[in-house]
Design goal:
By secondary structure, this protein is of the alpha/beta class. It has two domains: 2-229 and 431-453, Aldehyde Dehydrogenase, Chain A, domain 1, CATH 3.40.605.10; 234-420, Aldehyde Dehydrogenase, Chain A, domain 2 (3-Layer(aba) Sandwich), CATH 3.40.309.10. It has helices at residues 22-39, 44-60, 62-73, 77-101, 135-146, 160-173, 190-195, 208-220, 243-255, 275-287, 307-322, 354-357, 373-381, 396-402, 438-442; strands at residues 2-6, 13-18, 105-107, 113-120, 123-127, 150-154, 180-182, 199-205, 225-228, 234-237, 267-271, 326-329, 344-347, 364-370, 385-386, 388-392, 410-413, 428-429, 432-433, 446-453. It has a seven-stranded mixed beta sheet, sandwiched between helices. A six-stranded mixed beta sheet has the order 7-6-5-8-9-19, with helices on both faces. Helix 2 (44-60) runs antiparallel to helix 4 (77-101), helix 2 crosses helix 6 (160-173) and helix 4 runs parallel beside helix 5.
Amino acid sequence: MSFESINPATGELLARFAGCTDAELWDRVNVAAVVQKEWALASFAVRAVPMRRVAEILRARAEELAVLMALEMGKPLREGRAEILKSAGACDFYAENAERFLAPREESSDASRSYVRYDSLGVVLAVMPWNFPFWQVFRFIAPQLMAGNGGVLKHASNVPQCALAIEGILREAGFPEHLFSTLLAKASQVPALIAHPLVAGVTLTGSEAAGLAVAVEAARVLKPVVLELGGSDPFIVLKDADIQTAAVVGAASRTLNAGQSCIGAKRFIVDTAVHDVFLEALVSEMSKIVPGSPLDPETGIGPLARMNLRDELHAQVVCALAHGARLELGGLLPEGAGAFYPATVLSGVSANNPVYREEVFGPVAAVIRAEDEADAVRIANDSRFGLGASLWTQCAARAEKWIPRIEAGAVFVNGLVKSDPRLPFGGIKVSGLGRELGVEGIRAFMNVKTVWIR
């Protein structure tokens, strides 16, 4: 099988790469395991040197790498630059804090001394998506390499150039050869990789179906998993919210990365007292964001990553309209080349509408009317997903009342839901298992070892 890099804005074939054979994948893991054993013995200070160098390289090459993402998966340049700088920040953060996060912890027991230490597990398999082709990988690389683990990457098949660039940056920075390897592997080869005796665990960011498949395979061989899956994040607007600010942020959240973000606002749940004024403001803000070439610095939305993704998104919009939703903005397939889709707003979305339940992975906002704030939170929780939630109110006490009742891995009050290296990231329900980032992220693939000394 070959891997093709195709420009989603033009349909142009950029490059083609040969995939790895099963034997090549097996050998890569074997070699990574040998190198990781030595790496695990290195001090945190030694590990931090190439990690900080990675951050320097990313910053120096931010423009070049942003262009690569624009060409390979359609991300606008300003978003690509921000992604590279965020990845660099994660590298610096873990270079600075890994030793503190993994320091042995003294505990009292019947021993003369007892403590807990954190030892690396080995080589971790990362199965990563295309929507944030650098950030998703670096939020795995930064903590796990600083923790003493190794890594093998099975990236999305449509971003092979990004995947290979990441491996090249690590080598340039001075990480040991083969400690981290990019594997140009098919999805059908992942079960064998998980079962490899020297793969210690697996982390996946992707769809619910992919997460279930990986979880089943990992369970067969009793290996730890971290899964960050889909989301249908609620954007809850209470009657005392700053409506204009909420509309500006809501439009940005729904159109960032052409709406191809697990934590992008998807269901706009609005108290009936302010529903109409918010809907008008949201439509106004969404209408200002127009599609264009991802290489144009003025572009608000680039293309979706593939044509089939655009077709699936449009089918969801057509289905939503057939089930009673009203089209307030967009919703029409544009003419011409490229996987472009306009900013779209649907109103009148009820509980019997499929778009009420589904994850919509594109710049389409579904606006849902709530009777009051309690009903808004009920609707927010009426979902199989539980990744992030945004809550809008100008009353701190009201926010604190509802935060514990919102079923999500993160609640952002009066702000856009985002990931941050300093804070744990992940979901509940079918949005995933475990956490990335923060102290929880670096401990995800560690042997938490009890030591008892008489």
